[in-house]
UniProtKB/TrEMBL annotation:
One of its GO terms (cellular component) is cytoplasm. Signal peptide: none annotated. It comes from Vitis vinifera. Transmembrane segments: none annotated. GO terms for biological process: glucan metabolic process. This is Phosphoglucan phosphatase LSF2, chloroplastic. Keywords: Carbohydrate metabolism, Hydrolase, Protein phosphatase.
Amino acid sequence: MVPSNSFKVKRISCKLSESGVEESATSNRVSNSNNRMEDYNTVMKGMMRNPYEYHHDLGMNYALITDHLIVGSQPQKPEDVDHLKQEENVAYILNLQQDKDVEYWEVDLPSIIKRCKELEIRHMRRPARDFDPDSLRSGLPKAVSSLEWAISEGKGKVYVHCTAGLGRAPAVAIAYMFWFCGMDLNTAYDTLTSKRPCGPSKQAIRGATYDLAKNDPWKEPLESLQNVLLKMLRIGRGT
């Protein structure tokens, strides 16, 4: 999905019994994990209409998008938080998953949040439904607001993730670059996908942009949308 030098790969090792046959419990866990990934990727390809896949068994993966912004897959254990802090100087984690996403992958989120607190990393949640462009569209303003606030604090990098880091998280990063970094939508989209190949919903970002412009009480022209968004999104940012 991304160049090998862009993320840290972790692999599952299967223990063998003395007879050389995998222990049944381990075998069942691996089988269940493989089935879970296969089911997830089948749904993702069908709903998002792109060929990208998520390989949970390879561990957390990510790409540096800007000097202050990283987009990736879900941290799976507290050690992933240590890696982000020590290797990438991450000071904020923006999590776009719903509770059911975390439960599906059997990730112990409380232990990850606990480790974030211990390392003084601010953990923020802005849930959006997976594979749902309407949910993403409605959730983008608050998610981008939290991202803009965290970056503006200047304390370290922001790690934005969903489950696979291929839909919701890159969409938030693209919307941020579009709304706040002086890029048009196509440039922001191409900038991110050149560093992390993925297929987030461009239509959801367009829709969220339209919603914000439409709801501006001053009805300012679309060309000045970045200033409008900055004014609107700062309300309640980081909450």
